[in-house]
Design brief:
2 copies of one chain form a homodimer. Chain A is α+β, with helices and mostly antiparallel strands. Helices cover about 45% and strands about 10% of the residues of chain A. Chain A contains 23 helices and 11 strands. In chain A, strands 1, 2, 3, 5, 6 and 9 form a 6-stranded mixed sheet that branches. In chain A, helix 17 runs antiparallel to helix 19. The first copy, chain A, is globular, with a radius of gyration of 29 Å. The N and C termini of chain A lie far apart (about 65 Å).
């Protein structure tokens, strides 16, 4: 790549024009200058330095719901569509009501595009997901369709499932209420069997029983599934699921006996295109066959037929959590891709050791404080994607077993999915914002591309099981499993909890003190250390229980127990995930990904090294260790930091290749700073020139919403705009101020 | 407070109606139910349990820019004004362009209210700040006015200062450029002395020299101060400050030789009412006397007169940082107040030990995983507010000295303000989001009140000195100061760096190993431990330097050095801040605040205990300690956690009183979950009923912006709304889907 002429004052376009949008480019006659001219060269040079093929990684990891070729086909259609081409740039200029209208418009448009381009259902879902809007169709697919198929009987699946798959009906899933979310057993909505009509009556008896949060419910869904307390002849049978129609299909009018609406804007502007809703039922009648009856059912006359096992309906809860792990990794990878690219081309401060005043400033990514911040996050993103693939496979194995009435895998999958959901969602959320902060001041611009990522990831730490509550469940499981091992040291434990054996069996996890930083790169050292730390924390938890503290008061301690458990599991599955796809990935690609496995493990250890260096107190030593003995020597800790430093230095020249491996298209990222070609300053300036606020004119009403947020590249008025209201606000302000001053 | 009747279906208003807004209340005929009826009682009970007077704390700490009485006077005017009464509820319904117009409107309106109510300038600033908009007037006051007064000579202050104080001109401060922010020395804008006209010529030579970020510049400022490289007769004298007019006062038209505009929306919807701007100068002429000349000046003919000391102009940078500490504490205190109140009244799960099925569920705040999360954040908020008061005083002392040419305090104030700015802004940002997460799912609603807080705090970690860069400066200062002590053990060090003596002088920080959890409550234990940890980290940093690593490669290590330094200083100043105001605060109030000092210190230690428990490696022991010896015994760590637990338990019954002590008014918090009276479920339901999205009608255009985001309490249409566009989008979507399915 040749360097653009720093003296040139005309600029190449930054993208193609589509519809009313001219191609983006700088239009003022500005000499580019050395700093801006260098960015594309820096990026090309860094990309060329990759000693592996990023597309092999992309093609392997993107082969999920749809394969990579199909994904790119779908994205290409969207990125050339007049409505969607500049979608991500327009959204921050719309208010909630405008975003909601655009979301409905987009749903209709995507189904049209799907028909025109003969997309599969999965391709349609991919297209909807990629808009960063969390539209009602997303929720229809994530929460409504799977519940019908997972909890309905064959007849119900035939009756409703196909219509839902075809979008002939749009549905929502109503579980959470105003007063209860985490404690599902305490939901207040009732569904009472009425013998006379042989049907059910749905009712919301109190303010806090109002259904709350269901996506799509607010203004869209024609149908829904309601979780309610089943009551037959005065006796409560606990929460069950009921299917019902909500709105008239043609007019959208809510049915009688039902009130509903949108619950309001979400924090940080998140989910602007999703109508999370509220609903209240007033003795609302539904037929008896509307209870989802794969497991339990109610017969004519009110006889209740129990499910064959209480555990069978757990599958659904675990399903969503187990799908969240890789999704979380992908979200983090967006932040990482942007941060890697921008900090590479951003230069700030000359190296103080340089004697040549003509030396250019140093790439921000080359500072250890940046590299040490971002590379572990790169490793985490790959870790969650690959561990998440394992999680899905394990879930599918379990679901298969459950179909056959076998619950063997259930406990392990429950614990692992709870642990990883809680850990990965939090790490990803923090990591995304850390990436934004690493960009410096420009990261605060919406166009940096985080406006869609952080807010969208924010609720993941509280929905589908609050992370802190899930951590307690992991803690409880560790106590139970370790207790079983106490009684029977040869009891079977899943690989994800294998470290528990170290509590009572010396050498269950053989560990040799590292003698050099290179020793830390051995899996038998770092994975062992992760296992020993997790085991030590369980021992500490058991000691607190032994000291008389009740489990319910140990919820704080469980947080670290669950974190260390999760880091052990992610390490295990990250490595396994690479081996699963080794052939397709290729040798060099695996080698670099395996370096990320090591980096992930070492930085996970460094996050909390205390349990390994603290000499064991009385009664808190692992088997084979003595009271007063620490697992790790002080020198090993110094070597650990050295190992991390050296590994970061080794990986650094490969990071553009590694972030390319995620395969994000510029259109998907929607980021001026994360451009694949590195032309960040041109992009920032082009958008600042064309920013709609600088090109006044009556802001369009809802009816002409297609005009909202259009960037006017190349307007003659560039840099000279005066807002419509200057004359009514700022002018009079100054005049009045002058009058007051002269009183 | 008597409990509302759970069976009642009519509701008391939640506030007063103002203008077009009816009073907020639930209007559907819903029985309240036990859960909702209990919240106000729980809140009143918890408030009554305070064993001190929160108003004494409020009145003391709120006595800042204006006293508390004046603050409440101003807020009361705003909360009863038709424009501002529901300001915070309306903002999330406006898009960027609408928010910007509202911001200009608000600026004019507040100056009018100021005139009507005879507000002082400080009261006007307080009114503007409280709108959570970061309006151009805020920046005028924070960045433009202080620079004129701090860097202008007497004649310039007279010429421009008074006009600025009266809002006869509105200004911005242009420092950062597209290509350079952190590295100020490398700014590219030039200001060249022109001998012929005896004036200066401002010029933007390259793309990356475009001025960027200046608040108010985009669409508002009539004037500005530009930082540019001073060039006289071909020689560069480095960055200097220049005053210039930007726009025609009457029309708002940009002057010739200048293009400018708004840089675009910010991340997470932040700063929607601030027009951060860009500007380019094309050989733009300004008079010679427009260079701010308190220190340096240029004489007729081009003779450059150096400032008496290079250090004199540092004051300005330090000024803004030193003002950020308590502001950061106040921002955090908003999150803490909301989290404390909502988690108190939110109940989830019965205590498993209870045998009585009629027992109510447990307050979420009573779970250790919640209390241990929120109480340390409560302590941090008070810590930053009180340490921030000390910081301001110290700054003023230093500024006074600088006026007299005395730079004695400069180094200490520079290091302390850098350290605390970097540490407190990050802790507060993380803490605010932690508070939101502690709310569970409902924290994701904009009405929870975090939409204004987290995004507004987000840029603080990168502006006014990137936190990571500041951490390196702290690290460098610690190396320098400790080096000076090597050479001269009786060298004078400021109290904020006093711990450095422990590196070479045994017993500089006497420390006795705690023998009980209560021992940890002694300042001579916890403050000493904080000092020893900070010293140990400096020793580790020195060891890395000794091993041959250059300082520039130690930027990652400096982060923890700076954190531990900051925690030592916050601890020191938090305690001193309470003592400074002890009489006014009162005895009981001080006693509880001092428990927060302890809690802050203990949790700061617990954050990273490793340096204290790791046996010293060769060459890394503090004076008086041997190689292989740790500072803290393993049992002390267990006692530390016990001490924290017991202290949290002791403080817990006082938290409603302690959060009341911040003195936030419901109107200021703008939070449905943080209501002082605890009526959260009623508030959520009332707003869900009235949410504008549920009451369709053409969305107003910009001209009728006063109609945007009005909540329709008590409308006959409640719960039955159909969006305007259902007929054009969702209806056709379903019809087309049915057609496709039947093909």
């Amino acid at each position: 790549m040749s360097k653009p002429d720093p003296k040139a004052t005309t600029y190449e376009p930054l993208n193609e024009g589509v519809g009313e949008w001219a191609p983006a480019r700088v239009t003022l006659p500005i000499p580019m200058g050395e700093v801006a001219a260098r960015t594309s060269v820096d990026m090309a040079t860094a990309r060329a330095a990759a000693s592996f093929d990023p597309t092999r990684i992309e093609e392997t990891l993107r082969d999920a719901r749809i394969d990579n070729e199909s994904r790119i086909k779908v994205m290409t259609v969207l990125s050339k569509d007049p409505i969607f081409a500049n979608w991500k740039k327009r959204m921050p200029h719309m208010n909630r009501e405008q975003q909601m209208r655009q979301s409905h418009f987009a749903c209709r448009r995507i189904l049209e595009l799907g028909e025109q381009n003969e997309w599969t259902t999965h391709e349609i879902v991919e297209a909807v997901l990629t808009l960063d809007l969390q539209s009602p169709i997303t929720i229809h697919w994530v929460a409504f369709v799977p519940v019908i198929f997972g909890q309905g009987n064959a007849e119900q699946i035939e009756r409703w499932g196909e219509k839902a798959m075809n979008h002939e009906i749009l549905g929502c899933y109503m579980q959470t209420e105003l007063g209860h979310g985490t404690n599902v057993q305490q939901l207040e909505t009732t569904c009472t069997y009425d013998e006379e009509s042989d049907g059910f009556v749905l009712h919301s008896p109190t303010l806090t029983s109002t259904k709350w949060w269901a996506g799509g419910l607010g203004t869209t869904s024609t149908h829904g599934i309601v979780q309610a307390q089943l009551i037959i002849k005065g006796k409560s049978y606990g929460p069950h699921l009921f299917f019902c129609q909500l709105r008239d299909m043609e007019t959208g009018k809510l049915l009688d006996g039902l009130v509903a609406g949108d619950i309001g804007p979400k924090t940080y502007g998140a989910f602007g295109g999703l109508d999370n809703g509220w609903a209240r039922f007033d003795h609302f009648k539904i037929p008896r066959d509307h209870m989802l009856s794969k497991h339990a059912k109610v017969k004519k006359g009110g006889e209740y037929v129990k499910p064959p096992s209480d555990k069978l309906s757990y599958g659904g809860m675990i399903f969503i959590r187990s799908q969240m792990i890789d999704r979380t990794g992908w979200m983090l990878s967006r932040g990482v891709t942007i941060a890697t690219r921008y900090t590479l081309v951003r230069r700030q401060f000359r190296d103080p050791s340089s004697k040549d005043v003509n030396d250019v400033e140093r790439s921000v990514l080359s500072y250890p404080s940046t590299a040490r911040r971002i590379l572990p996050l790169l490793a985490k993103a790959y870790a969650y994607i690959l561990a998440g693939r394992r999680m899905r496979t394990l879930y599918e194995d379990m679901a298969q077993q459950l179909e056959e009435g076998n619950t063997e895998l259930l406990a392990d999958v429950h614990v692992a999915s709870s642990s990883l959901k809680a850990y990965c969602t939090k790490q990803a959320l923090d990591g995304i914002e850390e990436c934004r902060q690493a960009l410096g001041g420009h990261g605060f611009l919406a166009s940096a591309g985080f406006t869609q990522v952080f807010p969208e990831q924010a609720p993941a730490v509280t929905y589908e099981g609050d992370n802190i509550v899930l951590a307690s469940q992991v803690g409880r499981a560790m106590l139970k499993l370790s207790g079983e091992l106490d009684g029977n040291s040869s009891a079977k434990v899943a690989a994800t909890s294998g470290f528990l054996k170290a509590i009572s069996q010396a050498n269950a996890i053989p560990f040799t003190q590292p003698k050099s930083s290179a020793d830390w790169y051995k899996p038998e050292v770092y994975s062992a250390a992760l296992g020993l730390r997790a085991a030590q924390l369980v021992v500490d938890l058991r000691a607190e229980i032994k000291s008389g503290r009740p489990f319910v008061d140990l919820s704080f301690e469980c947080i670290e127990v669950a974190k260390s458990h999760a880091e052990f599991v992610v390490d295990l599955w990250f490595g396994e995930g690479i081996r699963d796809d080794a052939q397709r990935l290729g040798e060099k690609e695996c080698a670099w990904l395996n370096k990320l496995v090591t980096l992930h493990a070492l930085t996970a250890l460094s996050r909390n090294i205390t349990p390994l260096v603290l000499p064991a107190s009385q009664g808190r030593a692992l088997a084979g260790y003595k009271t007063g003995q620490a697992i790790l020597a002080p020198e090993s800790v110094i070597l650990l930091e050295k190992a991390i430093r050296e590994l970061v230095t080794e990986i650094l020249p490969q990071v553009i290749g590694l972030s390319d491996g995620f395969g994000w298209l510029d259109w998907e990222l929607g980021s001026s700073l994360g451009r694949k070609d590195g032309r960040v300053y041109e992009h920032l300036m082009a958008d600042a020139e064309a920013n709609p606020l600088n090109h006044p004119g009556a802001v369009p009403s809802l009816e002409t919403i297609d005009k909202v947020g259009i960037y006017k590249y190349g307007s003659a008025n560039t840099g000279k705009g005066i807002p419509d209201w200057y004359g009514s606000e700022i002018g009079p302000l100054l005049t009045a101020a002058a009058r007051r001053a002269n009183l």
